[in-house]
UniProtKB/TrEMBL annotation:
GO terms for biological process: glutathione metabolic process. It comes from Natronorubrum thiooxidans. Residues 501-543 are annotated as: Disordered. GO terms for cellular component: cytosol. Residues 13-538 form the Hydantoinase B/oxoprolinase domain. GO terms for molecular function: 5-oxoprolinase (ATP-hydrolyzing) activity. InterPro entries: Hydantoinase_B, Oxoprolinase-like. PANTHER family: 5-OXOPROLINASE RELATED, HYPOTHETICAL 5-OXOPROLINASE (EUROFUNG)-RELATED. This is N-methylhydantoinase B.
Length: 657
């Protein structure tokens, strides 16, 4: 369906409708400009924020052009809950604040500011801004506490509150909030920046009302949602009816024996609607990687929208796409189960599962699994000479690789699928602000999942602590074991995790989830992000493409032979001169084809022993033998290995046959 066709049956002439629809987008983009220019937090400055325009019932009318889908997919829930909470007491000049994940939001770091907009004493809209605050209290700097067994141990949960009441700033309420958070001045600055953004949006909206009339603007609200609904229904109607099902996994539940936590996603296309059913997912787990209803629904919307990138996102889409998310599961954890790490846990697993199913429906847009979102956080006392013992908060995320696609390699070193608009943070800005020196930041050779079309490459980032005291480090990620997977015969990327090297000690693998690990001046850490999974059989990749990857340092000569069966001789590496041994390559590929299914049936413990003896490396285990260990100790994870091999059988071996 063309966008011209979508203009049929609207109650406005097409020109006025398009002008107003575009004006609503511009209004939200103005909010983004305001926040980025006036925020205090380096996290928000690097675009971990989103905004939207809601109607008087809380429905999303419009998002901005760079807003993050995980936020936008929940903003209508937050708005509806807040309007209901203050029903009968909503006044011009009011501004509300909320971060409650159990009221449709994401996690407690995402703080929403809402301003009701009135015209002639009638509530006509709500302007809303969401910003990820770098800290909202709790025992861990950054408020990511892996030890939390309830939200009470994570940080400050804010129900709907009036932060401005009829135009009067509620100093006592604001001070109560920010004094329970680290770097209180930054938190207050972000609060004011987001509030001003909602005011600018209100001002712009009222200008449109004055120019076009209130009835026309309200009609445009409705038609903007109807427009998205019509486009989506027509797109879905053109697709075959059917049901698809797949699973993705969280590494494990710390409250239980080792083994993956299953996130089961079933998708049904029924004429012009799409329904997702996640009822087969496991129960919520004993750490903060659980999702709430709002976050998981947002993952459903974001995963779907990736296959319809030109369709605007507003509440019209929610009339076409819905989801069953049973309470008590890992995708709908009830109060007070901790959920702060949801976006690195259940959220992206739902998205990647949806990618796999839509890759079958729309193979021209197919994509394998993307790297896992991760956060590394550090806080303490800055003892550099010019900082006078002030508190610091270092909050970092990395780029990584997206999955290989049908006909194209995956995107290298890009933002996580959680938020494609996120910026890579400036190293210089971080170093000015905190006592951490970045020691490396580079693409990781061999991180991309092998395939006929390889995944995008991941990135490795390292740092060293400068003068500091009372400092700790925390990490939130996943896929140390449920490694980023390939599709249609493609192979996995690399495990995530952090390695810490302290003075006079050997490097230590700390895994993907921990909190409040003490660190001192001179300590060093490094962490790689995975590349995306490969798409298609790696043995079908053009040997010349593998040679180019070796030249670019995306693939090593050793793994070119092991993963792709391409034998390459280094003639003069300084001049990037490499040659393919075509006869040896043909023999190597025949050998791999003959033996690769047998490798995946090898006794796991004997494979683990070869790893411990140094005969095999981590990528041999992940890509060739399908064996997963507790990487620091080398202990075999039997149940995890069985599940990982089953995943490889379904996504790779079945295609090789």
């Amino acid at each position: 369906m063309s966008q011209t066709d979508a203009h049929t049956d609207i109650d406005l002439d097409p020109v006025t409708f398009e002008v107003l629809r575009s004006s609503f987008t511009n209004l939200v983009d103005r909010m983004a400009e305001q926040i980025q220019r006036t925020c205090y937090s380096f996290v928000i400055y690097n675009r971990d924020f989103s905004n939207c325009l809601n109607d008087a019932e809380g429905n999303t009318v419009m998002q901005g052009s760079q807003d993050i889908a995980v936020h936008v997919g929940t903003l209508h829930y937050t708005c509806k809950e807040t309007l209901e909470y203050f029903e009968g007491n909503i006044n011009p000049g009011d501004v509300y604040i909320v971060n409650d994940p159990y009221l449709g939001a994401t996690h407690i770091n995402d703080v929403r500011i809402m301003r009701p907009v009135f015209y002639d004493d009638e509530l006509i809209a709500v302007t809303q801004s969401n910003g990820h605050w770098a800290d909202v209290g709790g025992p861990s700097p950054g408020s990511f506490n892996i030890e939390a067994n309830s939200h009470f141990a994570e940080g400050l949960r804010i129900p709907p509150l009036k932060i401005w009441d009829r135009g009067e700033f509620q100093d006592d309420v604001a001070n109560l909030l920010v004094t329970n958070m680290r770097l209180s001045e930054d938190r207050m600055g972000d609060l004011r920046a987001q509030t001003e953004a909602t005011r600018i949006a209100e001002e712009r909206l009222l200008e449109l009302v004055d120019k076009y009339g209130i009835d026309t603007v309200k009609t445009a609200f409705d038609e903007s949602k109807n427009y998205v609904e019509r486009i989506m229904r027509e797109r879905i109607r053109d697709l075959p009816n059917g049901t698809w099902r797949t699973q993705d996994y969280i590494d494990g539940d710390p409250a239980k024996e080792e083994g993956f936590v299953t996130i089961d996603v079933e998708m049904t296309i029924d004429d012009d609607e799409v329904h997702y059913d996640l009822s087969g997912s496991d129960e919520y787990i004993g750490n903060f990687l659980n999702s709430t209803y709002g976050t998981s629904f947002s993952a459903v919307i974001a995963g779907t929208k990736m296959f319809f990138p030109d369709v605007p996102l507003n509440s019209g889409m929610y009339r076409v796409v819905d989801a069953t998310l049973p309470e008590g599961t890992v995708v709908n954890a009830p109060e007070p189960v901790p959920v702060t790490g949801s976006v690195a846990g259940a959220y992206e697993k739902v998205m990647n599962a949806i990618f796999e199913m839509w890759s079958e429906v729309l193979p021209e847009r197919a994509m394998a699994c993307a790297f896992n979102l991760e956060y590394l956080l550090s806080g303490g006392t800055d003892r550099r000479p010019d900082r006078d013992g002030e508190e610091f908060m270092w909050y970092d995320w990395m780029a990584g690789g997206w999955g290989g696609r049908d006909g194209l390699d995956g995107a290298n070193a890009t933002a996580p699928v959680f938020g494609a608009g996120l910026a890579v943070q400036s190293l210089e800005g971080q170093e000015r602000d905190t006592p951490l020196l970045t020691s490396q930041h580079s693409i990781v050779t061999d991180s991309a999942g092998p395939g006929e079309f390889r995944g995008g490459c991941g990135v490795e980032k390292g740092g060293r602590l400068l003068e500091c005291e009372n400092s700790v480090i925390s990490y939130c990620s996943d896929r140390a074991y449920s490694v980023t997977w390939g599709l249609d015969g493609g192979l996995p990327g690399v495990p995530h995790g952090v390695t810490l090297t302290r003075a006079d000690e050997d490097p230590k693998d700390l895994g993907t989830v921990f909190s409040n690990r003490p660190i001192e001046t001179g300590d060093q850490f490094t962490r790689p992000s995975s590349g995306g999974g490969g798409f298609g059989d790696p043995l079908e990749r053009d040997p010349d493409a593998v040679r180019e990857d070796v030249i670019d340092d995306y693939v090593s000569i050793e793994r070119a032979a092991k993963d792709y069966g391409v034998v390459i001789d280094a003639v003069d590496p300084d001049l990037c001169e490499y040659e393919i041994d075509h006869e040896a390559t043909a023999d190597k590929r025949d050998h791999i084809r003959e033996h690769r299914e047998g490798w995946l049936e090898a006794d796991p413990e004997s494979v683990a022993e070869r790893y411990r003896e140094g005969d095999l490396d981590q990528l041999d285990l992940v890509r060739r033998y399908g064996v997963i260990l507790e990487w620091e100790s080398g202990e075999l994870l039997e149940r995890t290995t069985a599940q990982f091999r089953e995943m490889l059988e379904r996504r790779a071996v079945a295609e090789w046959r």
